[in-house]
């Protein structure tokens, strides 16, 4: 993809990223579509790579344990803490991140 297209996609995804209470995301978790992004990664960058179907980057992050489907322990802890997470939709996934996004692009 061209750099211009990537930058437009990045801007679009960044604009769609927001903090949401976990209780509003639980139904998506129940459907298996919530992906947790480690706070060492840039949530928008991960979303862009997934949207561009960058299989190599995604596979590497998965192998390194930096992205994974949310698990029951996380879901319970987030519910009990009444936590809000950074979230963005990249169909069919909802990417979430616990820590505040560091690099707003």
Describe the fold and architecture.
This protein is an alpha+beta fold. The chain has one domain (3-97). Helices cover 48% and strands 22% of the residues. It contains 5 helices and 5 strands, in the order αβαβααβαββ. A 5-stranded mixed β-sheet has the order 1-4-5-2-3. β4 (84-90) and β5 form a beta hairpin. α1 packs across α3. The chain is globular, with a radius of gyration of 13 Å.
Helix and strand arrangement:
Blueprint: H1 3-16, E1 18-21, H2 22-30, E2 34-37, H3 43-51, H4 55-63, E3 67-69, H5 72-80, E4 84-90, E5 93-97
Parallel strand pairs: 2-5
Antiparallel strand pairs: 1-4, 2-3, 4-5
Helix pairs in contact: 1-3
Number of strand segments: 5
Taking pLDDT < 50 over at least 5 consecutive residues as the criterion, the unreliable ranges are 101-105
Mean pLDDT: 93
Q: How many individual domains?
A: 1
The strands making up the biggest β-sheet line up spatially as: 1-4-5-2-3
> Main β-sheet: number of strands, strand sense, barrel status?
5 strands, mixed
Helix count from the secondary structure assignment: 5
| Percentage of β-strand residues | 15-25%
Using the alpha-carbon principal axes, give the shape. globular
Tell me the radius of gyration.
13 Å
Helix-strand pattern, N to C? HEHEHHEHEE
Helical content class: 40-55%
Instruction: Tell me the distance between the termini.
Output: 19 Å
**Category by helix and strand content:** alpha+beta
């Amino acid at each position: 993809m061209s750099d211009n297209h990537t930058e437009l996609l990045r801007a679009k995804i960044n604009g769609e990223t927001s903090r949401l209470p976990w209780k509003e995301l639980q139904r998506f978790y129940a459907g298996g579509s919530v992906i947790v992004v480690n706070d060492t990664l840039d949530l928008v960058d991960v979303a862009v790579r997934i949207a561009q179907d960058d299989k190599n980057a995604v596979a590497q992050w998965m192998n390194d344990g930096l992205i994974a489907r949310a698990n029951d322990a996380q879901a319970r802890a987030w519910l009990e803490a009444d936590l809000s997470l950074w979230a963005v939709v990249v169909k069919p996934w909802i990417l979430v991140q616990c820590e505040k996004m560091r690099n707003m692009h």
